Structures
1.
Amino acid sequence: MIKTKGYAAPTAGARLEPFSFDRRDVGARDVLIEIQYCGVCHSDIHQVRDEWGGSIYPMVPGHEIVGRVARVGAEVSKFAEGDHAGVGCFVDSCRTCRNCRDGEEQYCENHLVPTYNGTEKDEKTPTYGGYSTRIVVDEDYALRIPSSLPLQNAAPLLCAGITTYAPLRRFKVGEGQRVGVVGLGGLGHMGVKLAASMGARVTVFSTSPGKEQDARKLGADDFVVTREPGWSEALAGRYDFVLDCVSAPHDINAYLGLLRREGALALVGAPEKPLEVAAFSLITNGRTLAGSMIGGIRETQEMLDYCADKGISSDVELIPVQKIEEAYERTVRGDVRYRFVIDVASLKGE
Amino acid sequence: MIKTKGYAAPTAGARLEPFSFDRRDVGARDVLIEIQYCGVCHSDIHQVRDEWGGSIYPMVPGHEIVGRVARVGAEVSKFAEGDHAGVGCFVDSCRTCRNCRDGEEQYCENHLVPTYNGTEKDEKTPTYGGYSTRIVVDEDYALRIPSSLPLQNAAPLLCAGITTYAPLRRFKVGEGQRVGVVGLGGLGHMGVKLAASMGARVTVFSTSPGKEQDARKLGADDFVVTREPGWSEALAGRYDFVLDCVSAPHDINAYLGLLRREGALALVGAPEKPLEVAAFSLITNGRTLAGSMIGGIRETQEMLDYCADKGISSDVELIPVQKIEEAYERTVRGDVRYRFVIDVASLKGE
């Protein structure tokens, strides 16, 4: 077994604290990654606080993991010692269902093994995430991080990057299209960079007028403040695609109204309360409201290679793990530009 | 001007009564259709009762119109005297916007002229629908009714037919797919016939156990009664496409849950209250909730030709116009198999 230091929530909503545990030995198809950075995703907070139900404690959160390969199993072919590698939101899946066979493992029909807050395929062994010094993972579920990507800025690509990249590709966002990005947070700022890099004319929709300058720096052409009622009227039917990155309650009908004929709004945030969707918002212009959840391993690798090619990565604020509670508070109130990333070196002394 | 007899609602919610009015003279590009049958659509009732707001009175409802061409203008090329012709939900549009140019006039961005309860492009002259003896319409907005289709059964194709055909085509329903049809009424029964004709394995979801035999006769392979909670659990992720024809409040999340990865539910009913859509219903499996509204002229003609080719038309109950109130009551309580059609000959004596 491989001794590992981490930070864990001992019970629902409790403060995270140092936690020592063992990783499994490196199997024939495994890689051992010495974790250097781990992004802080809003879903870490939801799960630590058991806001979605079913949380397992102690919980070591973290699914935006990057580091250096320290050891590889005998049958590993994709990685060598010293490579940069990453782990996203899941570390295994059934590999046999239609979705796994199609490379869309995130929708595994049998048992998706989440990187943390879940169990291995034995349905007993808990999984522990990236707020920790090392991780052992099957090479099929690890990603190559291109060497040109700065490692700490690459970490959030493993969740925020793929979550926004996948729907932009699925709905064929490209040159000359008008794309809206709702909410400029961890997901939204990646959505803006990626959509702009694909040639779209991007508008950011935000409740925070103070984010306009940032939005434009990230690649947005337009910025719309959505505080005043009626803000959407002049824009009705103008957009080809809207990426909705908001988890807080919001009027989805106003954003649906932006869409041209057969345009799509993709939901990547997950508001807790049901969305109130007016039938006419969809029937008018034959619009589509779609959900999207991260992406498969193949597409995640494609996204990482694309980001390296385009020189895209996440804007991050590096923190020691000891500041995690403050980072959670600031994330909840949207006070981060645009992703906290834990410098895992800070765990060494714990 | 062309003298016309009709049935009209004089005010919101009042009983329909005989009403005489003039149709415009036949212009160079117009056809005069002697109406023989007109279908009774649930939206006639909504509009007569001003349930969607903005109704114009007196209102002559009816947008599932078929009859015989009695006269054609000098420049008409698509029709000759004696042809069977039909009129659907609209009789004109701007012809210049992107949607009109794409042949999707139903989504006209400037002025869709509805067959009734609207105004002509002068924004003054009211339009009157098919509960009447004749109609004058620009040939570009009239449909050819293939002679092999029984005329009275063809009438509902102009709304119920195209409304279900368009999303089945848009979402590429075909051989071997599993398709659900929710609600077995005017729309649903066409959805079953059309989806089955395209090679899909069709399941009808209904609150009425008594409709099973009919569903199977119409072409369904399976029938699921949706009264008991939990009915959907065993079917999760099994369906490629769901056509939701229900206007009454219903649990959309249960139906979304039926969909496989990237499967779509198309909404063609229009519930008055917003649908409560759980974000996870969409995010799981990357599902899509789409709206769809009738169809363009080109696709409506394609649908009519397709129906003629496949021998598909609507199951109807023929009524004299004098029984319209009873037909409305029975439509509202779902007591019709599956569409009332007015025999316009009954207007002759009024």
2.
Amino acid sequence: MIEIGLYMAIHFTPVTMRKKAIVALGGNALVKEGQDGNIYDQFDNTREVSTSIVEMIQDGWNVVVTHGNGPQVGAILLQNNTARDVTPPMPLGICVAESQGMIGYMIQQCLANALKKAGIKRLVVALITQALVDETDPALTNPTKPIGPYYSKSDAEKLRNDGYQMTEQTKGWRIVVPSPDPKAIVEGEIIKKMLDDDIIVIALGGGGMPVFEKEGWGLNGIEAVIDKDLASERLAEAIDAELLMILTNVEKVYLDYNTPHQKPLDNITLKDLKKYYKDGHFPLGSMGPKVLAAIRFLECGGKKVIISHVEKGWSALQGKTGTHIQK
Amino acid sequence: MIEIGLYMAIHFTPVTMRKKAIVALGGNALVKEGQDGNIYDQFDNTREVSTSIVEMIQDGWNVVVTHGNGPQVGAILLQNNTARDVTPPMPLGICVAESQGMIGYMIQQCLANALKKAGIKRLVVALITQALVDETDPALTNPTKPIGPYYSKSDAEKLRNDGYQMTEQTKGWRIVVPSPDPKAIVEGEIIKKMLDDDIIVIALGGGGMPVFEKEGWGLNGIEAVIDKDLASERLAEAIDAELLMILTNVEKVYLDYNTPHQKPLDNITLKDLKKYYKDGHFPLGSMGPKVLAAIRFLECGGKKVIISHVEKGWSALQGKTGTHIQK
């Protein structure tokens, strides 16, 4: 009996030796402020951001890299609209899928090269990923998120005929789409299996293609965008990650950001963060969803969230910078 | 000692219960002759082609779906060129990666829906896939493969300035790129692991992004295209598939194709097929690479190759149609 017990303990317990983390890269990781999005800059930036991830892997972490796609999907939408008279424009979901292919390829190649250079033998692959939303999410009937490039009035008219809602801003017209709350990541179970197999996964580009469960049909795409950090949090739950690292364009989270009284947060508890969140310290379009993702993750059993700059990932993990949030 | 032997047999032998197959879908699977490539037709066609694959899975096969991308990457190249003055055009490798995202998403969603409808609980995911080529492949210095749309003379000039070689055909100018021989699939080991985990994988869209091993650097992309069927064969070797099914726009392989004497092949041995291949029965641009893939696969330990029409996959597997090639 003892032998059987021991045997079962060794052989039927899922072996997950390494600590698991999600590293969520902001849109500025691959296209920096002022760059035009050409491929050479994007590859250079991808190589740069890979170094932090290699350090983490060397330190014993099993990593899923998620990433934004703002600049890339913006360029793809613009290409689709400019060429609309010569080839049928694709809907937003397809453009997001294209950006997952493009960015996934870059990260997969650069990260594998960097790992090899560091003498680490690990497999890396990018997955096409869908985010499940609730068909009754009120956000779906209230498009609020401006995406992609600025268009002229006549182009805006054409896009409106395609079914897009358009909004006028100071620099021109933009597409506005709903941003529903992600409920789950369709490929979550697969990603967990792959991590348990020690594979490094790139997933959830642009927050994933939003899909809903259509009765008698199955999954169906929807014209919307998903917040990448809220989606990354759902994935972190699905894979039982202990760390969610959100890398963006600021080194720390601030109270009273962009005011003379702005105050960086170094270490903060979940309880205090929730209070500041409720008090409205974190704007909806930028730090808000990141802080909400942090709150959800820690409330669902996650151990730690770090928010820092894309160039400071490894430094933040060592405790040298970043905002560190724990229960 | 007997106990240890038994224990090892149970626990250290890879458990691969299901037979493994590669199903390689031709470019006509998702965009049919005469269609303009709009997304609604593409989804309809994807649902249609999914039914054969569901039948196979129901029959006990573990499947990797590979696919062409001719119409899709053609549209992406055209969009890139048309919008070149407003956003930097991407190189061919990136356009292929975008097409993998787009097509992978469609197949992944439609196939998962079809499986669910059939009451089969299986996980499906599309992977970004690279094909390794040899830097010294003579094909690399001899671009022969015309790809993508027809351009005007002035557009051809711009593309030439981007570094593309252009060729004049009767309908206009086209990009010509090298088509080197794939040596291995970079993600082969990952795909094998996933299959052994009972996951259905979509991979190798457009034959994969061609990469070579650059000394002191790692993998590096190259402006070329890979034949999807030759790449699928390399993947079939990597995953120890027993069946390679190539689905295209004809129901069978023919001798003297498109002549008054054309003769369909129903069942043929490797030896006879090699003879016909040497005799020049299969043109380079169409059936040639498919037959070469068949020959390579059977010579490397594969059991069977079936070549048939994209709408006849399941029917061909049941022996009702198609060309069946065995050792």
3.
Amino acid sequence: MIPRTAIPKGVRVFTPEETARRRAVEGKLLSVFQRWGFREIITPTFEYLEVFEQPTGEDAGDQIFKFVDRQTGRLLALRVDITPQVARLVATTLRQAPLPLRLAYAATVFRYHEPRAGRQREFEQIGVELIGLDRPEADAEMIAMAVEGCQAAGLRAFQIDVGQAEVVRGLLNALQPAPAVRSRIVSAIRRKDPLELDLLLQEVPGDPGLLETLRALPQLYGGREILDQAARLHFPPASRAALANLAEVVTILENYEVAEHVILDLAEGHAFEYYTGVVFGAFARGLGYQLASGGRYDHLIGQFDYPCPAIGFTFDLERVLAALAAAESLPEVSGPDVLLIDFSPDKRAAHRLARLLRDRGLAVARDIIKRDLAGSLAYAKASAIRRAVILGSAEQPPETVLVHDLVTGTRRTLPLGAFVQTVAQGDSPWEI
Amino acid sequence: MIPRTAIPKGVRVFTPEETARRRAVEGKLLSVFQRWGFREIITPTFEYLEVFEQPTGEDAGDQIFKFVDRQTGRLLALRVDITPQVARLVATTLRQAPLPLRLAYAATVFRYHEPRAGRQREFEQIGVELIGLDRPEADAEMIAMAVEGCQAAGLRAFQIDVGQAEVVRGLLNALQPAPAVRSRIVSAIRRKDPLELDLLLQEVPGDPGLLETLRALPQLYGGREILDQAARLHFPPASRAALANLAEVVTILENYEVAEHVILDLAEGHAFEYYTGVVFGAFARGLGYQLASGGRYDHLIGQFDYPCPAIGFTFDLERVLAALAAAESLPEVSGPDVLLIDFSPDKRAAHRLARLLRDRGLAVARDIIKRDLAGSLAYAKASAIRRAVILGSAEQPPETVLVHDLVTGTRRTLPLGAFVQTVAQGDSPWEI
């Protein structure tokens, strides 16, 4: 018997402190997106399963929470990925909208994977899609925004690993290994495992130059110079075009003055089957997981019968928060600004003062429980409230306000009239 | 065969315009809550079914979206109501937190009811819970916040209907009608159907004075004077205590100077089995549905083994938006502030100018597609972008900025240096 208070594995309730931190980081990321001209959309929490049943590179099918629609008998699925929902929106409601479209979202997605560090079964993605452009300028815009997002979130030491899905795909298409071997090769390249890769490639017949290039890929990781190293290797035309595309993107990123955060990684083929061009991931120093990831997916919207190139990426909020925690850079949060305590029997002065302070934007909780001043102050302190504003206590003359700063422990008694006037003028009442 | 673009009944995708309106109203409501000292929490989208399987007055069981947890085989349920989740949080994680607790939330809930005007199967609730106080001050705080929420959302003509669940419950407990008759009586009282009520009460034996009071209840609707009218009727002690409680709440609401928005309704017993005291609902003039509803539920948290009084209420965002639409008071929204168009081959000036404008808080989309100026301006206009800022076009001298206002159609050419300096100083570049 599970107690009624039990919470299912992999989901969480967030306390006021945790929620304030989440909203702070979410707001900073959405603000970056908004200032780059991206507009938020909202998608439904569940869909017909078919919307998500597409090759996504990851084996999403097993991860989907499914249930039966009681009325139609059809299978519904909790949102496992927001990008297909955006693709469907673009192909239907927004089909007549002028391109490019810049869309943003912040929403939780649901996956049945095993909970592990920074990964829940319900977790929030905060991302963007830039739709209708297949130019390197679009790729560079995404990567520059990922850099700015990391900075806005408060991360100091981070890097963006940038690859191009078509580099590896071009090589494999030219070599044509058996499908089972192919996926093991991809995995070995991504894990940068030269021994495993070498063993696998011994079984693959084909152009020795191309095989040599595949063997070299895990080492092609670094600054712009690795594109020069790559130029000396043997590539099929599709891979060469991908390298040329990557070089263009890097040039634009240099113009953006963000190239210092970018590491090229020719072995990067993240979520391989999904992406069709530039792919990238953001990492915090010393942490092995991606805080953000994305790439170009020029064929997805076409699956909704509206062929249209697109690129997008998303921050994983749980991982960003974990990275901020590891760097001791979580945003500081606190309780309401003021606990307003009124001991006089007629509470009208408290009502008016509360309204004035709130109109000024301050968060004012009223102490409407009956207790003594010491009790009220202990409550304020335990509730992370910065200041108590006290009316009508035995410790102050009539027509005064007693301001008790709970952080410094200092107290000041001020004339009620002057206090009210200061607040009404829009000035800070703490600096009278 | 349902097309892959189909959306399940009762859920929606919101376009950028719709989303901006939702976020605007949501932000205004959350801001009211925050300024009253309430702190947001986040609850999971699904729970073990048991969390929601409690008497809620409404027959929630049939409305719940259920599915099986693949690993435990237990039934999970999509969030049908946030209050039980808050109750569980208070009884567990926050059990040691000092009382009262002021908690807020904004989240979607899921109900299998038939979609009708302003009601979806996934819809957003924006609400608060005030936990740990059973005093009329707490009830009044909730109602005053409901008034302020309506005002902040932009509603002009609205009222809050306030009742007390124990008035009707006290009468019925004294009369003890058969359970089936009892629920029909409650329904007839709520619908203010005197004929039906009269027919039902003819079957009920008991004190004629109490029966007479029940018959009179649907007429007890109006200002404070109905409490005087009620004082002349025959009530059992529990109902009298409820009326005295209501009178205290009204007195405090008069002190809050919000009584003009309040209508007393002694027939109100909203979601009867759930609530244990004051109940209320917000209505817009001319619309028959509640924009917000709530009440006191002193027994719910106790079901999670932590007896604790509480009162809460929630706005239904879809209905608030419908009321704003009916009153032609929806918030105005627009696209990004600026489309930045750069025809020069080297885009570094555009990158820097975009960064400057964004640092100033402006939403700046860059036109990174290759097209002529007329095409770019048509795009800006269709995308609801207010201004185009143009660099390097054939229509302007070098080292200038051409500012094209798409609303007024006016154009100005400004020296690039002066424009940059104005923005860098934090002044508006539109008023040079």
4.
Amino acid sequence: MSPGSIPIMQSPAGPHTVIDGRRYLYFVGTGYLGLQGHPELIRAACDAARQYGIGSANSRTAFGNLPPTLDVERQAAECFGFDEAFYFASGYVGNHILALHLEDRYDAVFVDEFSHYCVMEASRLTGRPVWKFRHADPEDLAAALRRHLKPGQRPWIASDGVFAARGDMAPLADYANVLADYSGAVMCIDDAHGLGVLGTGGRGTLEHTGLLADDGLVLANLEPDGADRPRRLFCGTLSKAFGGYGGIIPGTRGFIERLKSTSPYYRGASAPPAPAAAATARALQIVRTRPEMRARLWKNVGTVKAGLCRLGLETNDTPVPIVCLQIGDAENMQRIQRELMQQGIVIAYMAAYAGLGPEGALRIAVFATHTEEMIQQLLDTLQKLV
Amino acid sequence: MSPGSIPIMQSPAGPHTVIDGRRYLYFVGTGYLGLQGHPELIRAACDAARQYGIGSANSRTAFGNLPPTLDVERQAAECFGFDEAFYFASGYVGNHILALHLEDRYDAVFVDEFSHYCVMEASRLTGRPVWKFRHADPEDLAAALRRHLKPGQRPWIASDGVFAARGDMAPLADYANVLADYSGAVMCIDDAHGLGVLGTGGRGTLEHTGLLADDGLVLANLEPDGADRPRRLFCGTLSKAFGGYGGIIPGTRGFIERLKSTSPYYRGASAPPAPAAAATARALQIVRTRPEMRARLWKNVGTVKAGLCRLGLETNDTPVPIVCLQIGDAENMQRIQRELMQQGIVIAYMAAYAGLGPEGALRIAVFATHTEEMIQQLLDTLQKLV
């Protein structure tokens, strides 16, 4: 993996992407809504660079609030149906921020064994006992809670909403049922791959699962005077479906104000750069007001999964735009990836990632901007190779 | 701190900065070389947005390497005098990355009590015993090592190079002397406020202290077959003096290749956005090739500190462009800040920050782009208020 030998992307990520000088039909990465190279985002980025420069060079507690940063927070609050939001440097640290802010609210951490690296890192950061439960298995979660929690102790449950490589969803409704017996339990979901993609409003895996508003709970943020029933939190990134950059935590006004007033990520870290923030604010507005993009994505996901099924390849039937294929051993999958690429189509072979076995897997990413013809071309070419 | 009441910056940070509609003479933040709004950076950001979009939407282990990301790493390696560099989402997590990558190399952590939040967080993340030593006190570090390390155990020493609010430097040469007795010791410096500013080449606090190249040690990166003498590492941000965005770790080729091949921040986090990366690459080139900017900054720092000294205000005599003033109680300092602002000059009053006492402090940031007249205006106005 010396820098000389790695592939270099020479255009925005999109249904066609230029890599090392060649234009490929592209089914890789996380640009699910096809916004990374959207002209409105690019215009917003350039306008902001000219008006505000690259960054505020200042803490947000002093004079470091540039309008694009605040725009992202306003747009994200509206997009996700909350009062406020906290926008920060990278989605990677969303779980860190939540787990540290609420550290007096839990006694032990229970984490899906296939959770993303950042979820594992945040779990470790808590300094509490960390127990892994079997992937996407509410019964094993229940067993782990019974086994490891002492009476009166409060669990923190951590998981991805959508798993980046495997493309499956955490069974959040089942987790919620399990947690109903645990006073003060908190479920914290990293929804990096669900936000913008899942749910009628694009509010992610919790919305898709019907957990965003139950019993009048608009959500899910811990209030100091709150009841002790189970609560749900989520964080995510705006660099994937939204085509922008940076991490986001939406919440009620009180929760976000307390979070900002105490988090070192507000007081002591740079906000995302102005050009990226401006593009991200525009992206949030586009995603919120153009639900037809998500409908188109879901349709494409259905077409890809049905087509793979006809080829005898096993997939799930969710609207998640990630298809994980395990076809023979690593060598066979590398061959398929390589031969597809020779024919001008790129999918990813992932040798190692959270949740993958020793042989790795092929990963197909579906975009809203793929046409039916593009998808048919992928399916036809795959058919000859598998 | 509701979003309605916070000040909003409406221009690039610079010697003159527009806040809430008024143009101020500005001595706040971290834009020490005045690059945040530099036309060459803005042009680079816009060109990159148009050519590559906002971000690669992909892991760097797959197809997610955009040319601006690799440019930053090449330019940073050259700027800091190393073979290679790793460029990542935020300087806040540089210590996290290093401490996790090298976690089998130390048994206990010793950290300056006034270190930045991110250094404290990374220390906690290690899961090792964490011992604080008195701020900038090599004797207390030595005592802590004697008290807490068992025979054969290896210490990890963590500190800021320059302290963000206090503006003082860690006595790194003294720490190096203390560590000479400890086989396998590692000193890991967060040089967020030193990079670009200190040292003949702008390589930071280690260069300023003469520790970047002693005994032919070009540096400072742990090699698997390396001797067990004390080692030094540093990380930092490119969002302050450099006017760009993102975290940086320079190192030898072998070290950086191993770091990238194992770090979840390479495999599982978005690289900084393309517009910011392109601006940052340009900034690194500017800083490397125009040492006169740094000379000008040092001259301005000398002028400010000498002037404050004539007003009877205590400062240090280092080239660090941060002046921390404690003048009476919080109320008095807030008054000075407010009255200066009424007269069109902004400095910061920091109520709370790592290293500050309960009354907080005034903080003056000096830029290379301040003119002698601007500095004189600050000193004259301050004289009337203190």
